[in-house]
Every structure is written in C-alpha cells, then in structure tokens.
Amino acid sequence: MIPANRKFLLTLLTPALLVLLVFVAAPVIQSIILSFHRIIIGLPQLKSPFIGAENYRELLHDPVARHSFLVTVFFVSTTTFFELLLGLLLALLINHRFPGRGALRACILVPWAIPTVVSAQMWRFLFNDAYGMINYLVFADKVSAYIPWLAAPGTALFAIILADIWKTTSFAALLILAGLQIIPEQLYQAARVDGAGMWRRFRHITWPLIRPALLIALLFRTIDAFRVFDLAFVMTQGGPADATNVLQLYGYKKMFVEGWMGYGSAISVAVFAMVLVLAVVYVRMARRRLLEATL
Amino acid sequence: MTWLKKTGFLLGILLSAAFSLVPFLLFVSSAFKTQAQVTAIPPELWPSFSIDFFRSAILRYGILHYLANSVIVAGSTTVATILLATLAGYALARLPRRWAHFSLMVILACAMFPQIAIIGPLWRFLRFVGWLNTYQGLVLPYVALTLPLAVWIIALFFREMPQELEAAALVDGCSRIGALVRVILPLSVPGLFTAAIFTFIYAWNEFFLALLILTDPAKQTMPVGIALFQGEHTVPWGEIAAASFITTAPLVVMVLLFQRRIVTGLSAGAIKG
Amino acid sequence: MKIIGLWVTVGIVLFSTLMLNAQEPQTIVFLTWKPNQPEVWERLIQQFHQEHPQILVQMQIGPHSSTESHAVVTQRLRNKDASLDVFLMDVIWPPEFANAGWALPLTSRFSEEEQKKFLPATIAANTYHKTIYGVPSYLGAGLFYYRKDLLAKYKFDPPKFWTEMLVQGDAIVKGERDPALHIYAAQFKQYEGLVCDMLEFIWSHGGHVVDPQTRKVLLGEPPSVEAVTFVRDRIIGRAAPRGAINYEEPESLEVFIQGRAVFHRNWPYAWAVANDPEKSRVAGRIGVGPLPAFTGHVSASALGGWQFGISRWSKHPDAAWEFVKFMTSLHSQKILALEAGLAPTRIAVYDDPEVQERMLHLKHFLPAFKRARPRPTSPLYPMISQELQRFFSRAISDRETDVEGLARATSERIERIVQMEAAVQQ
After folding, report:
1. Mean pLDDT across the stretch B134-151?
2. Closest-CA distance of chain C to residue B65, Å
C-alpha cells in the first residue's frame, strides 16, 4: 500500500470544494436562513421578520403542499423504477458487440440531448387533444374519439411521467453501461467455459458488479425526480386542478409568482430534507459495495 | 436457441431505437411542413418537405447564435468540471475510507437542493461581483451543479483501479501527478467521457438559471432562445421543431464520433492481467 | 438578414460605448417579451434612435407568458437592479409595482390632461392611490368571435346570451353533421387566462370576486357560484371540447381557425390570425362582437393589455421617459395598430381615417374596450390569482365538486389576503 500523502490529496480536492462552497453551499445556507423568516415581496412594508419554524408548521398543515407531496412521490417512484429497469435493459443490449451499436447509442441520446423545456413543448404538442400525433396514431382520423390527455388529472400525470421516462431512460442506460464496461471480459469467458447460461452469468457476474453503477443511477435519478419542474411547468402548469402540481412547481409559484420568499424557501428545504434522508438510506444499504474496491 | 435469442435481440434494438426516435421524428416532421399543416386537425403525418421553417428559424429567430452560445457555455462547463472532478475523484478514491465517505456525502448533498431556491441568493451574489450577463456567471454555477455527479462517477472508476499501477509508476520515478496523468488517466477514459457527456448535456439543457442570469440576447443559450421563440400569444411550432432539429443533430454527431472512446477501456483486461 | 444586422449594429454600438466609457450616448435597457411582430417594434425603436441620437435603446427579450415575465422582472426590480430602465407591465401589475416601490411614479411627467387622451379603464389600471405609475401601450379585452358563414346559413344573429349561444350551437352542430365540430372554444387551463375567462362568465351573471367598492369577497355568493356551475355543467365537455381544460390562447385559437368551433373567445390579436389565409382555414368567414351575457345581465369583458413602466432604480429616468413617451405617442400607437394589429389605448387613434379604413374592426371593438373591466386590483393580486386559478380549475374539471363549498373556502382565503394588504395601508 502506498502511504497516503494526505496533504497532496486534500489539495487535489480543494478546487472542487471551493466551487461547490461558493456557488451552491452558500446560496443553500442563505435559503435555509430565509425559510425562517416571513417575506412577502409584494408588501415590503412588512419587512422580513424572523418567525422561527412557523413556515414549516404551516407547511405541515397546508393541504396543497400535502397533495403536491403525494403527486411528487408517485412521480418519483414510477419514473425511477421504469427508468432504471429500461435503462438496465438498454445497457445490457448495447454492451453486446453488434453492427450499428454506435448508431443505437447515438439514437438513445436523442431524447436526452433535447433541452427539457423543448421536449416538454414537444410532448405538449404530441398530446394535444385536437392536432396531437399521439391521438392520430391511436385513433387515426376519428377526431371525435381523441383523448384530451392533458385535461384529465389521471392522464395528465401519466403524460408527464411518460415524457420523463422518454427523456431520462438514456441517462440511466449510460450510467449503467459505464458500470458494465468495468467488468472484465475474462470473467464472462471463464463462466461460459464452465457452462454457465445467460441468466446465471447475469445473476452471478453482472448483477453484483454493476450494483455501484445502479446505485449511482438510482441515487441521482431520485434526486432529480424529486426536483422535477420543467415538465410540469411547460406541459400543464400544475393543472388540471393541481393534479400535476409537483413540489418544486408549488415552491416556484409560492416564491416567484406570489412572492412568499420565506415559505417557498421552506418548501425547498423540505424537499432537500426528504431527498437527503432517502440518499442516506440508499447509501447505507449499498455501503459496502460502493466504497470498497471489488474483489 | 440462438435463433430465438437473435430475434429477441433484434426486437430489442428496434424497439429501443423506435422508442427514442419516433416521438422526436413526429415532432421534427413539423419542421418540414407548411404553416397550415402543422396544426391540422386531424394531424397530417407526411410533411411537404418545405424548408421555410428552417429558413425562418435561422434568419428571423437567430437560432445559430443561440447555438454558438450554448456551445461556449456547455463546452467550458464540461472542461472545467472534468478537470476539477478528476482531481477530486482521484483524491477521494485514495483517501482513507471515512474521509472519502463523508466528503462524498457532502458533495452529494450539494446536488440535492432545488434550483429554484438557490437562484435567488446566487443571482444576488453574481450581481455583486458583476458577473450577471457574463459567460462565467453561468458557467461557474453550472460547474458547481454538475460536479457532484461527475465526482461520484470518476471516484467510482478510480476506486476500481488497484493501487499497484501507481506504485509501479512511482517506483519507475514518476511524480505523483505524473503517475496520475500518465498511468491512471488513460485507463479511466470511459469514466471521464461518461462524466463529460452528463455534464455537457446538463449544461446544454439547463433553462432556469440561464434564463435569469443571461438576459442579454447576445449571450442567451439555446433552451432560453427556443423558449423565447414564443410570442405573446403565438407558439411557432414549426420554427421550434426546426430549431430542435438543428440543436440536437450536432450532439448526436458528436456522440457518434466519440463513442468509440467510451467503448475501449478496462474491459480489455489491462488491470487483471 | 435585416434583423441580424440590427442586432449586430446595436451590439457593436453598445460594446463600443461601454469600451469608451462615454458619457453619451446614454443606453437604456428595455425589457420586453417577444412581440408577435418584432419588425414593427424594431422599426419604431430605429425611428426613436433617429429622433434622439443621444439615447440608445437596448431591447432585451424575456419570457412570453405573463407569469414568467413577472418572475423575471420582479426578480430584477426587487434586487434594485440598475441595469433595467424600461419594462412592460401586464395590466394587473401596476398596483403591486407601485406598492412595492419598484415603478417610478410618473405624476410629474404624465399630466392629467395627457391622461385624458387615453381610454379611462387603462389609466385606472395604471393608477394606484391616485398616483400614475405606467403609460398604457395597447389594450386587450375579451372578444367574441363567431363563424358568420355558419350563422348566416342557419339564419341566426350573433347570440346575446350564453343560453342562446348553446341553442344556436346545437342546431349548427346537428345540421353540419360534423362530429368534430364544437360549439365553443376558449381558455380553461390552470393559468392566468382562466381567471379572465371565468370572470367574464361571473361578471355577465352579475357576480363579483372582489367588489370594487366595498372590497368584500363575493366569490361564494349565488351569482358567482351559479356562473361557475354553468361553465362546469354546460360548457366544459359539452359546448367546448373536454381538452379545453388544457387550452391557452394558441390552442383554443387553433381549434377555431381549423374550423372546429363555431364560437370562440379570445383577445383582439386573434382577428388578424383568423383572417390570415396562410394560417386559417376560415379566413374571411368570421365576425366579432361583444361576449354574450346571462339573461337579464350585461356583457362583460376582462381588461388586458400592457403598459410601459420605468424602474425606480434607473440611472437615466429622463431618457427612459423620452423613450416611453415616444412609444406611446399617437404616431407609434397608430403604427402598432396598422402593422401589428395592436389595439391602441389612445382614443384619437380610433378616429384616425387611415386606421378606420384599414382596421375597421377596431371601431367594432371599441364598445367592448370601453366596457372592459379590470381584475381585482391589489398589490397582492398574484396571490389572489393563484387562489382563483386553483378554485376555478378544480370546480370546472370535476363534476362531483361542491362548487359552493369550495367557493366559500376560497373566499375566506382571499379575504385573508385582502386583509393583509389593508393592514399595511396604514
């Protein structure tokens, strides 16, 4: 073992930490401080009194926030599950050598390369109840049968979930693919020589070794899914009747539209806390696998 | 057996490609339609192959200059993030367990906060240092927002590499930095490229911060530019579709060119051999 | 090409100005959203440059939607951003901007005599506590569009009442035997536009949200509740397509100009679009008039439109005022009317012979404009609007909703907001 030159290593770490401190940590701390004040930007005469945990107390009793929380949790669980599943399948597919593999890899990047706001517009266009392509593909020319996808609470949420899965599956696929490529080919060859079939090779070689990559994908997908904003903002503005009013959209409306800076910050801190708890749980579950060198 | 596997395989490929491309193609086909065709009820599947929308998107809406800005911002972000993340990732892979674990969690925590809450204080800070409407005013926050994922990916890659390689290099007379650059780096290229793609696409796609920090049209990036295509009550679907096509194509081409770098790597068995 | 040329020119001039750190010309920053006809605006700005060579206007484009635009503008103003001089305000913003001290009071520059030349409703929208904070540029009011060819075919006159519209619509849809034809298209998505549309129904039933005189919240009273119930039961999914719950102006207009709706509610801009043969399949076959009302009541339109405001923290208020004065002058408003189809706020423009000749429909709009009613004026209007949006969206999208109960609950919340505002006006 090489004796760790701690000072050298810490120096390497510093630039990254510095950038994070100035551009993320400091604003986050300021946000947290704001969440303990009452600030209404439309009424500057009220100044910004310190009110302790009042915002959080109100948040717990806010029916709209509770509903937003449920909508968000549903969104997170559904999208993360499908994205990881489809991402895993895609990654396994691409990991094989076949002609046109590079082209397929480029294909799956297309959904992800489009800016989220543009893809949200695109789905809004496709899901339109009168001139949307989705209705056309399902019902052809029978205009009277067209479904107004974005107009009913259930289908609106489904539309957003589909849009997100379309967009982000390739993110999961690429991450898992990177994990797959660390696995040395010899292991598979040895297993094949020993007579192991496809499923057994997957279960005993692939699955254990991609768990770190899967964990990263799960972790970061969950974090991002909890903070979904662009899709709901562009496609439905949180409607109909708040059916797609995800937490960050609600926080945005409170903060930037209505001017409740303190309360909006409290919502953000609440989202942060929830995600933090989840992350700690995930990491603890896979702790041994992730941070120790394999084999 | 193999026939079944082969068909299943082929089916998988076709489905994946279709799933990724079909919605996009449906939308982009509008870029080749005429104005009345775009929102026809019921929709018309085949465009009339007019390039009016492309002309309009480029000349009237200036999509190319937004594209240039996006390339500058996303490119700078990627270079900076990968640089910092490589150093940090290496450090975290070699530090004692507890330090590494703690630092990784702290870095992760930085990725968890909703952007809408950060933007307020961040904006004020940027105004204070006079960096509003400058490229660095957007790039540096982007670096901060993409560092966590990049660091985690790269740290994972470095972790997987046993320390014997560095030991060998040091014995051969390399400095620590030299060992890093000459021995470790080339082997971790798949990880670096993966992190680079994630970073680039994040910076390419990001909307909210770009909207509030770069308000000067000369500097606005593409997502903002396309979002601002919308007039007071008009949604120029044709131009938006054309612009989406113009901005996605270079990315796809880029990936096609670089994807070979991602393929070669550790699976060659260099480590275990 | 010209556009790029202009941008490059402006950009180069701006850049060199900053480099030379010159005292003049002064640069003022004008924040707007993308106009429907940007060339017209740019031409006006060029004309301004010719008349005032010492002042350079840099146009910055922000988001198009009223809500997003509001977020961007208020973000800069409340942080005392001195790099913003002139901005456009939606008709509902002046009270908020005035109360928060973001907009510069214009009493010394915008005389009462001059104010009288504008439509009174627009001046009222810009006035807060007897001080004027903005100059109206163009206005909007909810208008009623209809297929005059279909009405003529079935020998109907444009309906004066909502029930009349439903009856006519039924007859037409049955007669045309087109399963994809709807009676009515309008905006019912959960956004600001929903408030406009619903208020028009409520007002035309004699109801109020906030009584302008007494400041009492009357959302839970029978006239308002009945109007909302009417929309839920007779309009959504019946007269209007179910998908209208996700319509903003563009989608609802698309339905109309594709020939899929007999009647349509929209702002004045829709007239030009609907008559443009390149975009519309019903060009030349539409009529326009005031919105229907409920029997025994008067038609009501929601007031819309945009005004110029000057930032409190602008370093060049005089230059900014010159620009605002120019852009709202008789000359500019006439050009905006003739070339961009924007309804002027100066009364004189309506009497101009050229305008009358080329834009005859503007004269038709004038009665509706004069009757246009503002949404509740309050510095906390964004909060009130959010409550209303939530209420209206829930009420109209779910047949099971207890409209009255929900209305009362929302009333209480709006009451609290109004009280908050009153407590501050000591």
Report:
1. 94
2. 10
CB-based contacts of B247, cutoff 8 Å, min separation 6: A113, A114, A115, A118, B63, B67, B70, B222, B226
Does residue B191 fall inside a structural domain? Answer: yes
Within a domain: residue B171? Answer: yes
pLDDT tens figures, C162-184 = 999 999 999 999 999 988 899 99
Chain C nearest-CA residue for B216: C60
For residue C15, what pLDDT is reported?
60
> To the nearest whole angstrom, how far is the Cα of C220 from the nearest Cα of chain B?
32
pLDDT at B226: 84
CATH number for the domain that contains residue B179: 1.10.3720.10
Q: Cis link prior to C25 (omega < 30° from 0)?
A: yes
Residue A40 corresponds to which tokens in the numbers above?
């209404």
At CA B160, angle to CA B156 and CA B161, rounded to 5? 125
| Residue C19 pLDDT greater than 60, yes or no | no
Q: Using only C-alpha atoms, what is the Rg of chain C?
A: 22
Domain count, chain C: 2
Residue type, B236: P
Picking from A235-249, B60-74, B183-197, C364-378, which range would have the lowest pLDDT averaged per residue?
A: B183-197
Predicted TM-score (pTM) of this structure: 0.86
Query: Is a pLDDT exceeding 60 seen at residue B266?
Result: no
CA distance A214 to C17: 54
CA angle B159, B165, B169 (to 5 degrees): 130
- Taking contacts as CB-CB distances below 8 angstroms, the residues of chain A near B20 are 107-108, 110-111, 166, 170
* Domains in chain B, number: 1
Q: What is the DSSP string of chain A?
A: -PPP-HHHHHHHHHHHHHHHIIIIIHHHHHHHHHTTB--BTT-GGG---B-TTHHHHHHHT-HHHHHHHHHHHHHHHHHHHHHHHHHHHHHHHHHS--TTHHHHHHHHHHHHHS-HHHHHHHHHHHT-TTT-HHHHHHHTT-GGG---GGGSHHHHHHHHHHHHHHHHHHHHHHHHHHHHTTS-HHHHHHHHHTT--HHHHIIIIIHHHHHHHHHHHHHHHHHHHHT--HHHHHHTTT-STTTT--HHHHHHIIIIIS-BHHHHHHHHHHHHHHHHHHHHHHHHHHHHHHHSPP-
> pLDDT higher for B144 or A179?
B144
Which chains does B contact via 3+ CB–CB distances below 8 A? A, C
CA-based nearest residue to A160, from A236, A220, A227: A236
Its domain, for residue C26, covers 2-139+303-371
Nearest beta carbon to residue C79 from set B59, B62, B124: B124
Closest CA to A261 of C309, C71, B214: C71
DSSP C64: S
Helix, strand or coil, per DSSP, at residue C92: coil
Show the tokens assigned to B165.
């390689």
Distance CA A129, CA C379 (A): 37
Q: For residues B260 and B266, what is the distance between their CA atoms, to the nearest angstrom?
A: 13
If one counts every other C-beta atom within 10 angstroms of the C-beta of residue A127, the result is: 27
Q: Which of B56, A235, B233, A121 is nearest to C256 (CA)?
A: B233
Q: What angle do CA A30, A31, A34 make, to 5 degrees?
A: 90
Structural domains present in chain A? 64-292 (1.10.3720.10)
Q: Of B46-55, B197-206, C136-145, which gets the smallest average pLDDT?
A: B46-55
pLDDT class of C119 with cuts at 50, 70, 90: very high
- From the list B20, B107, B223, which residue is nearest A108 (CB)? B20
CB atoms C379 and A152 under 8 Å: no
Q: Where are the beta strands (DSSP E) in C44-130?
A: 55-62, 86-90, 127-128
Domain that holds residue B122: 64-269
- Bridge partners (DSSP) of residue C288 are C145
Q: Looking at CA atoms only, how far is residue C321 from chain A in angstroms? A: 25
